[in-house]
Automatic annotation (TrEMBL):
Keywords: ATP-binding, Kinase, Magnesium, Metal-binding, Nucleotide-binding, Pyruvate, Transferase. The active site is at H453 (tele-phosphohistidine intermediate), C829 (proton donor). It comes from Trichococcus pasteurii. Its EC number is 2.7.9.1. It catalyses: pyruvate + phosphate + ATP = phosphoenolpyruvate + AMP + diphosphate + H(+). Its cofactor is Mg(2+). Substrate binds at R559, R615, E743, G764, T765, N766, D767. This is Pyruvate, phosphate dikinase. It comes from the Bacteria.
Length: 869
């Protein structure tokens, strides 16, 4: 079995086997780009390593040895020749990029003899010892888990004693001294001397990279991003090139487009005389990539040309790592760049316009979850004018966040558990901070640039981040941050704007995002491709406006009980419910009629010829009744009855299991006058709106909780009679439809009969899940967590439709319904209507539309287009 692939043997399609890094290094090698030679040990080896009790096996040893010989020949250096030493990096690389999650070791191969050889050979002993001290620290950290703080403390002491600001001010004496001290730390912490044999160093490093697949932060990252734990990481061994050889050397990272906005322009940073992680770790604040054009014009132009070539080749925005050694450019990595949702949309649209991808590919490139991010609010512009600006850093990941400041992952997590919105404030972040970042609304760092750990991870998580806010002096020990003359303590309120990089005191009001430009173009393409109609659930004119602005094609569910709960109306509703006689009830219903008609009229006028489905009253009546004593007293007074009498009446309406009680159309069987009032309000509202707007309005009246065709027939006849009365009174008629919800299993299996009485079905999948499983929606949370922990019933059937069971009911009902009523319109309302996976199912069984909450509409539209492509 082949465990090891030379760069010349791989290609970009082999990400699963070689990891993203290894596959792309192979691809770039074969494109003829300047890549330091190397080889990749496969992800299968990593899995095998865990299966084999965590040791390397003979076949792997042999293949590594043979690849090493080729590598030594290719670069003309050797592991066994201290005068001309081969140095390599040992790099992790999983199939899906996990930035900062796994560990990389640089300068491997150095030892006490070869460091002298390297010094002699390069005539640059400072560089040689700088490389050695870095290697000892990385090896100790990655392979032996020696805390970095031990080394950093020593380094800080040396820098402080000499008054240095930066690492590259260290002299040869400092560095030789550091190497000695580092080796002593290594010995003290591990009980072993620092390994001198390069092959031994390599074997240990390979094992450490394999093991890092299962370190805590890697496991957490995979859980958050839904990546399988069984893939393993590849290990890439690559000959070193050196950005720390002096001022004609350097290292950097650049994106081919702006990862925050999508703008087509090189975006990145570099540092001269630096190695590897120096840029990403935010140790010195790096220079903008544009400056490279002044510092080294030829290298800049070569890099720019390669960047364009790579973007064309991969047909996507690239994130490229490079190093310059003595004026010569090398590429060390390329991958599809992580980007914000806004940038993702902009880049997809631009790439399609540039002809690199098709419109369909552009639509497939955006994950439905990313759109969610785009719809997040920003700070209210007026509130911003009044806010106290403290400082400005780099707008590293857009979004607006206000919260209480905390200085460590542990404190941030604890505060979030207590329900506080958190802003994580750190000098810089490292992979250990992932959990803290997850717990925060936003992240503020004092150090680091646009490609720092904080910036990259925040963009990936869709969290707002301001990085490199140098004005903020952060004391993580004492939990304070000082900005000019303002001192903030743990728990104080702070607001950050991840687009502008501004930092404000206190909290700031927010507003909904305005979506235009590339987003509209993108959504236009989505609309061209999607098949399912997407409507919104909306209960008020305000909801309707929001739904329309998010592209809803109508209202699929207007819940009338929400109109009843309005504070001015609830007293009338209560009097109506507690009426002793039909006449009394009709009197109150007449009052409610005017109010409901007004709502419907406004909503129909906003929608014009777009459809609206209105569901008649569904919840049990006692939900509307007062519980507070003061309310009861007031009600008794208004109704002229005694408090005791009123309480007895309320008690008599109490139900043990209201979810299965006197609700939905069952109410209308007892009190037809309630539904008649609602039907009248809908039709009258529609007539007025039609006259006002000149549109043809076709109200859709929906009867909930039907379980039987005769029941529906009875309720429908009452409604139709009322509508005929309205038409006669007004001497006008308008078209209308009457349909039903299918949410009770019995209704689903008798749909052939029910469809004879219905113009449309709307699947109420929330109730259908509740009744199909026999899980109370309001109580299931408690025990479904157990199910989830034990791997039962995944995913939660209230979040994503249970295709196997409830889905079967939907499918059967659709089939039976259309058999007897071929024109039957079929839709879904409820949470599942906004869930991409459920949408794929609904589309596959031939439904006509889904309806979901307004802010899920763009997501549902995208999901609907993606299943159609
Ligand atoms: P990560 O996955 O965390 O980005 P990498 O394997 O890309 O880790 O390594 C981190 C950095 O180390 C790279 O960006 C690069 O600057 C440096 N590096 C890795 N391999 C080499 C090499 N062969 N020569 C010089 N620098 C290297
Ligand atoms: Mg990298
Ligand atoms: Mg229901």
């Amino acid at each position: 079995k082949q465990w090891v692939y030379r760069f010349s043997e791989g290609k970009k399609e082999q990400k699963m086997l070689l990891g993203g890094k290894g596959a792309n290094l192979a691809e770039m090698t074969n494109l003829g780009l300047p890549i330091p030679p190397g080889f990749t040990i496969t992800t299968e080896s990593c899995i095998h390593y865990f299966d084999e009790g965590r040791t390397l096996w003979p076949a792997l040893h042999q293949q590594i040895d043979s690849a090493l010989v080729d590598l030594e020949n290719a670069v003309g250096k050797s592991f066994h020749d201290p005068a001309n030493p081969l140095l390599v990096s040992v790099r992790s690389g999983a199939a899906f990029s996990m930035p900062g999650m796994m560990d990389t070791i640089l300068n491997l191969g150095l030892n006490d003899a070869s460091v002298a050889g390297l010094a002699e050979q390069t005539q640059n002993p400072t560089f040689a010892f700088d490389s050695y001290r870095r290697f000892i620290q990385m090896f100790a950290d990655v392979v032996k888990s020696v805390p970095r703080i031990h080394f950093e403390a020593i380094l800080d002491t040396v820098k402080n004693e000499n008054g240095y600001e930066f690492d590259n001010q260290l002299t040869l004496e400092d560095l030789t001294d550091l190497v000695a001290q580092y080796k002593a730390v290594y010995q003290r912490e591990t009980g072993e001397t620092f390994p001198q044999e390069p092959l031994e160093q390599l074997h240990q490093a390979v094992q450490a990279v394999f093991s890092s697949w299962n370190n805590e932060r890697a496991v957490l990252y995979r859980e958050i991003h839904n990546i399988s734990h069984n893939l393993g990481t590849a290990v890439t061994v690559q000959s070193m090139v050196f950005g720390n050889r002096g001022n004609d050397s350097g290292t950097g990272v650049a994106f081919t487009r702006n990862p925050a906005t999508g703008e087509k322009k090189l975006f990145g940073e570099f540092l001269m005389n630096a190695q590897g992680e120096d840029v990403v770790a935010g140790i010195r604040t790096p220079l903008d990539i544009d400056t490279l054009e002044e510092v080294m014009p030829a290298v800049y132009n070569e890099f720019k040309a390669i960047a364009e070539k790579l973007e064309d080749h991969y047909a996507d925005m690239q994130d490229i790592e490079f190093t310059i050694e003595k004026g010569k450019l090398y590429l060390l990595q390329t991958r599809n760049g992580k980007r914000t949702a806004a940038a993702a949309v902009a880049v997809a649209v631009d790439l399609a316009d540039e002809g690199l991808i098709t419109k369909e590919e552009a639509v497939m490139r955006i994950e439905t979850g990313q759109l969610d991010q785009l719809l997040h609010p920003t700070f209210d512009t007026k509130a911003l004018d009044e806010a106290a600006l403290l400082a400005t850093g780099l707008g590293a990941s857009p979004g607006a966040a206000s919260g209480h400041i905390f200085f460590s992952t542990a404190d941030a997590e604890a505060a979030q558990k207590d329900g506080l919105p958190v802003i994580l404030v750190r000098r810089e972040t490292s992979p250990e901070d992932l959990a803290g970042m997850m717990s925060s609304e936003g992240i503020l760092t004092a150090r680091g640039g646009m490609t720092s750990h904080a910036a990259v991870v925040a963009r990936g998580l869709g969290k707002c981040c301001v990085a490199g806010c140098t004005a903020a002096v952060i004391d993580e020990e004492n939990k304070t941050v000082v900005i000019d003359d303002v001192t903030l303590h743990q728990g104080d309120l702070l607001s950050i704007d991840g687009a502008s990089g501004r930092v404000y005191a206190g909290t700031i009001a927010k507003q909904n995002p305005t979506l235009g430009g590339k987003f509209s173009t993108f959504m236009d393409w989505v609309n061209e491709m999607k098949v399912l109609q997407v409507k919104a659930n909306a209960d008020s004119p305000t909801d309707v406006k929001q739904a329309l602005s998010l592209g809803a094609e109508g209202v699929g569910l207007c819940r009338t009980e929400h109109m009843f709960f309005h504070k001015d109306r609830i007293p009338v509703v209560r009097q109506m419910i507690l009426s002793r006689t039909l006449d009394e009830r009709k009197k109150y219903l007449a009052e409610l009629l005017g109010m409901q008609r007004q709502d419907f009229q406004e909503m129909f006028a906003l929608l014009q010829d777009r459809p609206m489905t209105v569901r008649l009253l569904d919840p049990p009546l006692h939900e509307f009744l007062p519980t507070a004593d003061a309310d009861k007293v007031a009600l008794a007074e208004a109704m002229g009855s005694s408090l005791a009498g009123l309480e007895a009446h309320i008690d008599s309406l109490h139900e043990v299991n209201p979810m299965l009680g006197h609700r939905g159309c069952r109410l209308a069987v007892t009190y037809p006058e309630i539904y008649r009032m609602q039907a009248r309000a809908i039709i009258e509202g529609a007539i007025i709106a039609a006259e006002e707007t000149g549109s043809t309005i076709t109200p859709e009246i929906m009867i909930p909780l039907v379980c039987d065709a005769d029941e529906l027939r009875y309720v429908k006849a009452e409604i139709v009679a009322e509508i005929e009365e309205v038409f006669a009174e007004k001497a006008v008629t308008i078209p209308y439809l009457i349909g039903t919800m299918i949410e009770i299993p019995r209704a689903a299996v008798t749909s052939d009969e029910i469809a004879l009485e219905a113009d449309f079905f709307s699947f109420g999948t929330n109730d259908m899940t509740q009744m199909g499983f026999g899980f109370s929606r309001d109580d299931a949370g408690k025990f479904l967590q157990e199910y989830e922990d034990k791997g039962l019933l995944k995913p939660n059937p209230f979040h994503s439709l249970d295709v196997k069971g409830i889905g079967k009911l939907v499918k059967l009902s659709a089939k039976l319904g259309r058999e007897t009523n071929p024109g039957l319109v079929l839709g879904v309302c409820g949470e599942h209507g906004g869930d991409p996976e459920s949408i794929a199912f609904f589309s596959s069984v031939g439904l006509d539309y889904v309806s979901c909450s307004p802010y899920r509409v763009p997501i549902a539209r995208l999901a609907s287009a993606q299943v159609a492509i």
